[in-house]
Amino acid sequence: MADPIEIEAPDDSGSVTLRRYEYQVHVALQAVLEMLAGGTVEHVTCEHIEDIVIARRDDARCAAGELFWDYQQIKTRDAVEPWTLTDVLSKKPLKSLWRTYCAVRGTSLLYQLTAGVEGYLDPGDELVTALARGNGGDLETCRKRVAAHLKVADDDQLSEFLRLVRVRTFVRRESIEAHNTRVLADLGPGLPMATIDALYTQLLRRTREAMQGRPVARWTELLTVDNPPAAVLNKRVSAATITDVRQRLTRPDHVLLQDLSQQLTGSETSLVRKLRQGAASQGVIQDAQMMRANADYHRLREAALGIWPDDPAVEADLDQRLLFLARRVGRAHEEDSRPADAIFDALQVELQNNPAAYDRSPLYAQDGLLLMGRACAVSDECRFDWGNARDAS
To answer: Would you say 94 and 75 are in contact if contact means Cβ atoms under 8 Å apart?
Structure first.
């Protein structure tokens, strides 16, 4: 008799669905790790209104004592290409967020609506980058496409919705557990990795139970709200829920919450740290991350196709040219109040206008955006900085 494993399954979607569900659990756990680090996350609610709802305190947009709510709809896909607006619309996170908007608007809550996507955004797609920053309503083309997608005719209501929308990228599913575990290890530097792995497994189990609405022991007493509604009772992870885990960790003084956030969401931590040291705006940081990821993807794809040069001197020549350029531009803007923004803009203009002078082979198709991404990678390797705002006067 043939083994059933040899028979092609008519429907093999169950495994994919489970992997995507597990990815969502790891994403929710990132906010739990922020609680462990002493961040602004008050609690995390799973599978209630949206996939994940994160409540934060001490937000600049809120009065003292109020919470800011982040409703997150998480989307994954098997493709490794960057997300365009078309890709975001096809996965329909905005349809879910629109339903949330209709349910929440008119309340006294302060909130945003986040489409969380696995991977990274296409830095060349102006529409998706505007949507990611809450500026989708400012671009007529973006507004019209979202209106058609949602079948919304009320332009004022749509504009209000788009001002609340953000798009946030998360590392891919094959990397997210390693990223989260690394952060947990930073929070407990004296603990052996076996203990870190055990603690992460414990946190993962509790977050998964919240996703399923399964109560843990003494759950009602652990919640930080009075008389929680039944629909939320078993779905919320608060700081008190993970007190025992916190007690087993010793948070080092050098862990900065902003750096922790970058550790959770991307691999470019050195790049982001140096950009922030140069007083980079959030938009520049996001652009740098997306461009770096896009350049890395291009390089990996070329290598997989067998057309990336074997001689390392070819890539070294490009990197050296980018390094000389970056250092020259850096010197020109070292006195700026926000040197990182000025350096970033000047580099991008030069690489867009004169790519052949740097990408001679070419390795990156003499594409200014790809070259800018490679320059960010060179910075991430600690070969140049983006200025120091504290030294600027």
So the answer is: no
